[in-house]
Amino acid sequence: MVGSICTLGSGGGVGPAKTGKTRTSPQSGSSFGAVLQQEMERTQTRQVAFSKHALSRAEERGIEVTPTLLERLGDSVERAEAKGATNILALDQSLAAFIVNVPNNRVITALSQAEMKESIFTNIDGAVFL
After folding, report:
1. Helix H or strand E encompassing 108
2. Residue 82 belongs to what H/E stretch?
3. CB atoms near residue 9 (< 10 Å)
4. Which of 54, 46, 38, 49 is CA-nearest to residue 78?
5. Which residue has the higher pLDDT, 116 or 80?
6. First to last CA, the chain
7. What pLDDT, on the 0 to 100 scale, is given for residue 24?
8. Which pLDDT belongs to residue 10?
9. How far is Cα 87 from Cα 108, in angstroms, rounded to an integer?
């Protein structure tokens, strides 16, 4: 249903608003429940992606990217996002490290345990243990 927006003027009369915009009711197209369900499904299927750089680094450093690892990285991104972090260091149990850009759900680089010993991590605002 599409209708014009009405306002109460100072003269007490009711007339169309002068915004030129129309308003649609929530019933047109989809219900709130359907939209909510779609959004929940979209966020549940949202996975962390690896940049080309991160994929090549993981491969050359012998870091195996498994579905379980992707799931744990996705969970860490959600937790970091809830805390307002934008770039995190995610440390895996296998002692691999990943720098992840939270807003873009993207792994920027991957490091092995040997490389972490001499590394200084800058431009991160959070750390998560996977």
Report:
1. strand 106-111
2. helix 67-82
3. 10
4. 46
5. 80
6. 49
7. 45
8. 47
9. 9
